[in-house]
C-alpha cells in the first residue's frame, strides 16, 4: 500500500507557520483590543505579513492543486513539492535576523554603525517618570542604578560614563520593556542587540549580561511575560 506523504507534511507545514504567526501576533492583538500600548514595528511587520500572504497563498494553492488534479505524475508532484517548499521557506525567512536587518529603518541601520549613543528622544521629565515607575514596581535595582545612571545610559555616549543599568527582569520582560520603549519613543536608533549586548551597559539581576538569543526568542517561548500588565501600565502613563 502506497502512502502519500504530501498531505501529512503539508499539514505540519501549515500548523507550524500559522502557529508561529499566532504566537507572535496574539499578544499584540490582545493589547490592541484592550486599549493597551502595542509594541509593533511597522517597518518590519508589514513586509512580514506581505511575505506570509504570498508564501501561504502558494502553499494553499499547491495543496488544492494536488488534491484536485487527476494526473499526479512524477513531474506534477515534483513541481507541487518544490512550490510548496518555496512558499514555506518564504514564510520562515521573515523570522530571521537577516530579514529584520533588511527591513529595519534605513536611518537606524546607517546611524547605528557609526554611533555609540542610543539617541533616544525623551524629555528629562519623562525619563524621571520612567525611572521612578521602574523603581516603584521593583523592575530596576535602585541601589546600583541611580536616576543619574539611568540618564547617562539612555542619553549619553557609551564611553562617556561608567554607569550600568541593573534590571530586575527576566528575558521575556526585558524584551517587552524594549518593545514598549521604542514604541513609546520612536525617535531613536535603539536596537535590541545594541541595548542589551553591544553596549554592555545593561545587566541581569545576577550582574551578568543578557543572552541575545534568549531575548530574541522570548516572544516564541513566552508570548506574555509576568510583568506585561505592569509594563503596559507604566508606558501608558508616559504615552
List keywords for this structure.
239 residues, mainly alpha, 2 domains, single chain
Overall pLDDT confidence: 86
The main pleated sheet reads as: 2 strands, parallel
* Proportion of strand residues: under 5%
Supply the number of structural domains.
Answer: 2
Neighbour order of strands in the largest sheet: 1-2
Envelope shape: elongated
- The run of helices and strands is HHHHHHHEHHEHHH
Unreliable sequence segments: 109-114
Number of E strands: 2
Can you offer a commentary on this structure?
The chain has 12 helices and 2 strands. By secondary structure, the protein is mainly alpha-helical. It folds into 2 domains: 99 residues; 126 residues, no CATH class. A two-stranded parallel ribbon has the order 1-2. Helix 1 packs parallel to helix 3, helix 2 packs antiparallel against helix 3 and helix 8 runs parallel beside helix 12.
Amino acid at each position: 500500500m502506497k502512502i502519500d506523504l504530501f498531505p501529512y507534511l503539508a499539514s505540519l507545514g501549515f500548523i507550524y507557520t500559522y502557529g508561529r504567526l499566532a504566537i507572535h501576533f496574539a499578544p499584540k492583538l490582545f493589547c490592541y483590543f484592550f486599549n493597551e500600548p502595542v509594541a509593533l514595528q511597522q517597518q518590519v511587520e508589514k513586509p512580514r505579513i506581505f511575505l506570509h500572504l504570498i508564501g501561504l497563498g502558494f502553499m494553499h494553492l499547491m495543496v488544492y492543486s494536488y488534491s484536485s488534479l487527476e494526473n499526479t505524475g512524477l513531474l506534477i508532484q515534483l513541481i507541487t513539492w518544490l512550490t510548496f517548499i518555496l512558499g514555506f521557506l518564504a514564510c520562515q525567512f521573515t523570522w530571521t535576523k537577516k530579514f529584520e536587518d533588511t527591513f529595519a529603518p534605513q536611518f537606524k541601520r546607517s546611524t547605528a554603525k557609526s554611533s555609540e549613543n542610543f539617541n533616544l528622544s525623551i524629555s528629562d521629565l519623562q525619563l524621571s517618570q520612567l525611572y521612578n515607575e521602574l523603581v516603584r514596581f521593583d523592575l530596576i535595582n535602585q541601589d546600583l542604578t541611580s536616576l543619574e545612571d539611568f540618564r547617562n545610559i539612555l542619553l549619553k555616549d557609551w564611553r562617556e560614563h561608567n554607569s550600568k543599568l541593573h534590571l530586575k527582569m527576566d528575558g521575556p520582560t526585558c524584551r517587552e520593556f524594549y518593545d514598549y520603549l521604542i514604541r513609546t519613543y520612536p525617535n531613536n536608533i535603539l536596537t535590541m542587540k545594541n541595548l542589551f549586548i553591544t553596549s554592555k551597559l545593561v545587566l541581569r539581576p545576577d550582574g551578568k549580561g543578557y543572552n541575545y538569543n534568549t531575548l530574541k526568542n522570548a516572544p516564541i517561548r513566552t508570548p506574555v511575560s509576568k510583568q506585561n500588565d505592569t509594563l503596559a501600565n507604566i508606558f501608558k502613563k508616559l504615552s
